[in-house]
């Protein structure tokens, strides 16, 4: 009985963690792509070059700093919630999470080479990545996830077909092209008159 009760409590927790890890992974990848474009500004490019050249422990300090700087923001969100503004508190947490993850992802990309020279950091990173992969694999193995994935694949295929049909309908040989020809003829006639 206790084992069944434990399973009922732990299973949703595992799925919740896995979903959060998937969101974190998506946010990490997306923010790295977006922030990789920032070095177009000269001052940011110089700052990133300086960060990339730091020693391992200085790189670790730079990498950990955003997480520590977010603690007061999270306290502010908690205070906001306790003073009757739960929506504001949740928004503060969400914005802090998105911006913090984006910043940490970019900093990790800049400091990864230096951090990889620390054996204990590599051990912890690899253990964390194995845990993440295990949680996500458990989520992917569920029937619910497979139904959602099949539904998303079907939606994606339907969207692609719809866009292809729109392209045929409005493309070079479609109705939009015909309307363009009509408008051009009308414009030529008007110019002649």
Characteristics of this structure?
193 residues; mainly alpha; 0% strand
Shape: extended
Helix and strand pattern? HHHHHHH
Radius of gyration: 26 Å
Distance between the termini: 92 Å
Let me know the number of strands.
0
The portion of residues assigned to helices is over 70%
What can be said about the biggest beta sheet?
A: none
Mean pLDDT score, rounded? 79
Strand-residue proportion: under 5%
Structural class: mainly alpha
Our count of helices gives: 7
Poorly predicted residue ranges: none
Detailed description of the structure:
The protein is mainly alpha-helical. 88% of the residues lie in helices and 0% in strands. The protein has helices spanning 2-35, 42-52, 56-82, 86-115, 119-140, 143-170, 175-192. Helix 1 crosses helix 4 (86-115), helix 1 crosses helix 5 and helix 3 (56-82) runs antiparallel to helix 4 (86-115).
Can I get a quick summary?
With 193 residues, this protein is an all-alpha fold. The chain has helices spanning 2-35, 42-52, 56-82, 86-115, 119-140, 143-170, 175-192.
Write the layout of secondary structure elements.
Layout: H1 2-35, H2 42-52, H3 56-82, H4 86-115, H5 119-140, H6 143-170, H7 175-192
């Amino acid at each position: 009985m206790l084992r069944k009760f434990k399973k009922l409590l732990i299973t949703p927790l595992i799925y919740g963690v896995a979903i959060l890890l998937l969101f974190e992974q998506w946010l990490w990848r997306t923010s790295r792509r977006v922030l990789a474009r920032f070095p177009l500004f000269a001052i940011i490019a110089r700052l990133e070059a300086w960060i990339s050249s730091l020693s391992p422990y200085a790189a670790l300090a730079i990498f950990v700093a955003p997480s520590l700087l977010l603690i007061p923001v999270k306290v502010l969100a908690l205070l906001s919630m306790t003073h009757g503004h739960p929506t504001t508190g949740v928004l503060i947490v969400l914005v802090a999470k998105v911006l913090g993850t984006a910043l940490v992802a970019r900093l990790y990309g800049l400091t990864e080479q230096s951090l990889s020279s620390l054996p204990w950091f590599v051990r912890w990173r690899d253990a964390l990545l194995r845990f993440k992969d295990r949680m996500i694999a458990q989520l992917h193995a569920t029937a619910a996830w497979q139904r959602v994935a099949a539904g998303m694949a079907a939606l994606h295929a339907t969207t692609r077909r719809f866009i292809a049909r729109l392209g045929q309908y409005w493309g070079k040989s479609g109705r939009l092209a015909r309307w363009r020809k009509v408008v051009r003829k009308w414009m030529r006639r008007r110019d002649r008159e």
